[in-house]
Structures
1.
Amino acid sequence: MAVGIDLGKPTSQHLLEVRDLTTRFYTEDGVVHAVNGISYTLDEGETLGVVGESGCGKSVHALSMMRLIPIPPGKIEKGEVIFKGRDLLKLSEEEMRHIRGAEIAMIFQDPMTSLNPVLTIGFQITESLQLHQGMDKAQSRERALELLDMVGIPEAALRLDDYPHQFSGGMRQRAMIAMGLSCNPSILIADEPTTALDVTIQAQIVDLVKRLQDKLGMTVIWITHDLGVVAGMADRVNVMYAGSIIETGPVKYIYGDPHHPYTLGLLGSLPNPEGSMGVRLYSIPGEPPDLVGMPKGCPFAPRCTFKVERCLHEMPMLEEIEPGHLAACWEKDRVRRV
Amino acid sequence: MVNYIIRRLLMVPLLLFGVTVLIFLMLQVLSPVERSALYVRDIPRNERVLEGIIKRYGLDQPVHIQYWKWLMGTIDPQTGDRQGGILRGEFGYSRTASQPVAEMLARRFPASLELALLAVIPVIAGGILLGVVGAVNHNKPLDQFVRIFGIVGWSFPDFVFGLLLLMLFYANLGWFPPGRISDWANQIVQSPEFHNYTQLITIDSLLNLRFDIFWDALRHLIMPVITLAYLWWALTLRVTRSSMLETLRQDYITTARAKGLSERTVIRRHALPNGLMPVITLGGNTVVGLLSGVVIVETVYNYPGIGSAAADAAVNLDVITVLAFVLLNGFILVMANLIVDILYAYIDPRVRLD
Amino acid sequence: MSKKTWWSVLGLLVIASMVLGACGAPEPEVVVETVVVTKEVQGETVEVVVTATPEPVVPVEFKSADPSTFVVAAISEGIDTLDPAWNYESDGDDIILNLYDQLVTYEGPNASKFVPALATDWTISEDGMTYVFNIREGVKFHNGADLTPEDVAYTIQRGVLQGGTWSPQWLFTEPFFGTGIYDIAELVDETGALDDDPDGVKAADPEALMAACERVMDVVQYDDAAGTVTFNLSQSWAPFLATLAQSWGSILDKDWAIEQGAWDGDCATWQNYYGITSETTPLRDKTNGTGPYMLESWTPGEEKVLVANPDWWRTEPTFEGGKTAPTIERIVVKGVSEWGTRYAMLQAGDADGADVPRENIAQVDPMVGEWCEYNAETLGFDCAPTENPNGPLRLFRGAPATTRTDAMFVFDINAEGGNPYIGSGELDGNGIPTDFFSDVHVRKAFNYCFDWDAFIADALAGEAIQNVGPLIPGMVGYDQNGPMYSYDPAMCEEELKLAWDGQVWENGFRMQVAYNTGNVTRQTVAQILQATLSDIDPKFQVEIIGLPWPSFLAAIRASRLPLYISGWQEDLHDPHNWAQPFMIGTYAARQVLPDWMVAEFQELVNAGVAATTDEERAEVYKQLTQLDYDYAIAIRLAVATGRHYEQRWVGDYYYNAINAWTGRYYSMSKQ
């Protein structure tokens, strides 16, 4: 398991520092190793993309940071999440509630199911405002209007008292974003926000977030399985597989010069608009591993075309390829994009 | 919404017509002699008695004539006056109750209503509370206790539970007697000085400023209400619990928590409105069930509600009375369902009635 | 406490109460001392252990919470009507006899002797056909009106003219117009076609109607000036006083009755009031009598409440030691259908008396502190403390009831359209022919094969005596030492061998005996026959089938049952009231007794009712009983002795067979 990575700046100067975060789920079928000792840092104003397949632990790690994991069956075994100098994992529930929504906001994948169908959008936004910013009803309503405007919802005044089902998919997600931003959080975690939307709307949302980020100086963690989206907006990328970060680095390095077979595979799966017609899409053979009863050694080994004997017995650590760019693979030097 | 309500109300007479026709048809399976059994307690002393009964009550007439008579009444050959008939507001005479059906309903229905209204509160409120407690503490000891509590209540035969309570609190302790009110209170209630505004003794006694009667009525209601509550809690509890469990799994609950709301607020404001929706239907059914009469509780506590009267009528094939109950119940059912629908529309903005 | 804790506590409370409730009432302690005593037994000195009778305990004073109200927890409050001319149920009798008075009444506990009530004295003509009653003066009805002879005459006339074959009026029409006349409509149309047909009667020939009414007026006459009422019977009628003493002899106030909408007394209009049903009679729920109690309220299905009449006329008790005015102010008869609840009421002391079904006596007996056995000599009870002398209840036991159930053979079973109860319908071992029971040997066999001891033990909890003949104990003509059958399998076998020239013995038979579900007595009789007959030989098969009440009734009506078990509750305590239905009346007809047999019975029955002295009657009924035995037309079962439980603070109870177990409330007291 990788240990804490120093990306050059002293600890206290990072906005967020995750160290060796490990989360497991104790279920009837066994212990699920969802997040296996991941570490990274995040600085103000940065946009971090976290990519990987379903089940790789990207959402779970975010929920772990927010301490929204259901305990039982879940358990954050160990690790530290240092936010503005404080370890979130050690805060009391009450203190944590002051963080959630106010300092760190999270928005989710499907705005249809993530918004309460029986409460108005206005209510769901003003709720946070009243809670965290101590506004009264009138003030919070005014602010909510501003927010809806800001996210580009037309005729915001009329729509404030509408219910989620009365919005289109894109509008709903915008409203969700408005909700997330309402208390000016330092970090916005977006867990697959565009996955449930169609392509044109996706672009709009991505655009919106970028604009807002510039305007408000927000830090964003963007979780997705869609590499294309990440390419367009992230500064740095963490590639996760089977609960671990297997490659991390600035976006252009990840895309231009990946050194992990999995990243390679992911990129290879991307349809390349510049590619020639008739070239078959490469898809990674095999299945992601069962997170219960993980084998020793590299979790990707069963599917890896570059694997050697060592890969089956020893878990590779994240090691530097060049400053800021690390990969966890025994054969990383061999792995090259073709 | 008004259109919707009107259309639903228009369905009532159709429904009632259908059901009453069905009952009439079912009864035709029996021969006139068998149907005359209602009027005879034991083997008649005289051979001709049964013929007389059949003639008197028209038991051998064709079914559609009997139904018509029930509906529209009969014409007295001497005076030419029409008498009786449901559509003219005459419910007939109840053989099993030894009084006109209307009188019997007028006396017994308020009793059942009072019991039902009082019982609904603990049944539903208690069940909801326990269900929420169970769901929120899913799989923890409190949840297990709640589930067991509910199962025991559901499985416990009502007459056994009722008799146990009776033995303990009445026979041994003398606190809560059976019946509806004590003799001394009854004398006052029947007297002209007492004004019966609602026929519900608890409310009327308060309106008449007779707190002693109020307390007496309450004393008599406590045990039936506890018995009913304990037995019916389970249903509300189960539905609430599973509905809440389902709701708590939803994404919007995670969103709410992610906003930093306290768990209490999350449950109260975000989970309950969604989780309790199935309970609305259940609540409606519970009220209907309690109003249709809870025969065994009424019998054990000697509480004069419509349940025992209806059961008596049914067992003795007292058609007239049974039909009156059918009408009453049918009406209650339709109204209850209508109210449930309206409540749904009120709570869930996705539901629109048209 | 938080909400969670509240609910946990409540839950624990509930469970705790369930556990406690199961423990029930504390058992009374019984202290038995044993003493060893030396005794001389046949010359030897023997040591005998004797259980000493506990020292007589000073009786605990039993006081009720409210001595002015008497509460009875009855099995049901389900009377049909309070109209005395209509009511034919013992529950109704119970109330009517307390609200109204009759011309004569019983001498306290003696159901065969009559003392003045509304009549001060009377004369009966030599030929027994004319009764003249002097009507008491100064008697007031509950509404304040005065009693006059006209009221008496009106009451009886109205009852007879109202008719109805399922009312008790036949008890008047027979003495008034002749045996066999069961309804006034038969005076208009002899064939009985108009019985219970009000429309038919209204449409009948006005002359015939008028004539019928005038006949009634002839029979029942009054003279206000002389203060008398006269009855001119069609024949001497021994049970007449007994008939008048019953609830249908209750006297109404004519003006009040007319006000309520009853017959106006005019012969031109009686047909408009004929055949009114128990529910449409205007006197269904209203009463106005002269009796010791008044009706305060009647809530059908729940309770009846009576209040004492302070102006009751009685100044002489009906028997030595009797009372002349009610001491208990209010009587409440509640309908409590659930035994557990009645039991709870007894324990709580809320019920002063309660109906205790036979199967529950074991539950109640531990609460009995005083045990009173019936004494047939004194017509009273001898009481003694029980092993639990502080028990709150008192038990009266052993007085013979006035109902009997018999198993009656049908001589000609109706097989039209198929009859499932007779199997194949042939004597082929797989059924019985429709005239199976017309052979006396079959009937005797069934009698010898009936185990009375088992029946009394199973169905009547051992509290009964086998009955001799069609009458019941305690009346003229009944002889407990008369001829009766007893369980004798050897004789049963002999008779079976003789039946149908041996065909029965050779082929066996199969039949079904039906009972209405819930009726344990009938079921037990069927079970006994099944067991005893198959003991003789398995080819004698009696199958038992429980039918729902309507089906049972229909089967009886259609005469399909080969054997039916039915009971009779006497209307009056007179041998005629037993002889008539069983030998020539209802039951005889249902049994389809052959005409020659009925004719034989008829002679004796008529003689019995017309006889003017007890000796004459006794002789007639003795002959009748012998015939009943010889012809074995039925299996006469047993008359149960009853039980009556009351709280010990109640006093002065006496038993009169007619008033059954609730007695006349005015004679009771309560501390």
Note: The CA atoms of residues 72 and 85 of chain B lie 4 Å apart.
2.
Amino acid sequence: MEERIVSVALDDIHKRFDANEVLKGISVSAHQGEVISVLGPSGSGKSTLLRCINLLEIPDSGRLLVSGEEVLLKKTRDNRTVPADTKQVERIRAKLAMVFQQFNLWSHMTILQNVIEAPVHVLKTPRQEAIDRAMMYLEKVGIPDKLEAYPAHLSGGQQQRAAIARALAMEPEVILFDEPTSALDPELVGEVLQVMRNLAEEGRTMIVVTHEMGFAREVSSRVIFLDEGLVMEDGAPEIIFNNPETDRFSAFIKAMV
Amino acid sequence: MDLSIIIENLPIYFTGLKNTIILVSISLVLGLALAVPLAILRNYGNPLVQLPIRAFVYFFRGTPLLVQMFLIYYGFGQFDLIKESLFWPFFREAYFCALFTFTLNTAAYTTEILRGAIKATPHGEIEAAMAAGMSRLLMVRRLILPSAFRRALPAYSNEIIFMLHGSSLASVITIVDITGAARIINSRFYSPYEAFLTAAVFYMAITFLIVFLVKKLEVRWFAHLQPQSTKAAIETPP
């Protein structure tokens, strides 16, 4: 097998919220160009796992590497784990764009402003260049006519596509999707999935927490099944969907179909 | 009712108008300038920083404006420490004392208005900013404050109007603002009705202007909240 660049590597990641241990030692790595679907029942820790990657949640222990750079963590006096270097966290987050379940567009900004905001102010891209690129990405997600609209004036599907354009505008190494279609009306799910499918075909590295079994099966190059804070299955979709190793996963597939 | 008294003495009212506008606008600008950092610290500062801000806000919201002004104008003169200090030439002046009191008073109220508005920033929008790699400072500057100012505007427009009306208390410490002008006319001609009705008209006119300007700002700032049909109707009036 050819040697591919590791974009994100997690090693024995643990995370607990009070008494509830959500991640019980997760080791996964994502290679450049991989499209990984993370599946699992609710409460299995899949969203937490995704949020640990860009440090919206700080893992209690374990190692996290993003394009070869290890995130430096330290313990506080009251034994919480915090990032040792906030500048490093900001730098790493800028490499990992995220698309949220609730879109989370900045509501007082137009779509164009949403898309150019972080490139201009975080990456220091010249404004005109950022605008040109924003137009390109809005075209790509199919809403080039919505530049001047505010988020509240768009449908959920359009908002999520705008959020994807905002993520793309950072030219990220990896895009993290946190249940990107779960808040959408059923008839709008397709348009967002189509955009994601196109991105996958471009060879972008994506980690997608999803309940869309069709997407996991057909688009992703790898599927990870999480249950009770542990990785239960990890493999190419055509293999693990047809030959689940665990009863949990076969039960999950049955329940989802 | 004898309006000739008023018409003959309009220049006194205009002096009063000038003083009211100066007092109110300077204290509002300085008060807002103070309130922004205080509100940010009140939300994000550590508890030791928050405590004095809470005490400041509590004192100025907890006592009447008139009492605050008396404490500063009459009260400060009682202390040799202040009388011998560099600041005495300022605190000796009624005008400065009124300005000083109004500024701190509106700063306290505005801090509280902004604190609430900042706190109400949608959490998802903050997470999106964090996920984009924004620093805390950039986030405050580009996302949290612009968003909070919008939420604060209706409450703040009230504060502007309260401050305008509260400024009439300056007349108690010898300042000729609009109310001060009315008191002069009243004592000179013993015509309270004409004198204070004129003052009322002046205050109403300023209030009208404030409401009008806030409304214009709302149209610009609240475009993202308008239903699209209404937005179109505002932008292209029939």
Note: Chain B has twelve helices and no strands.
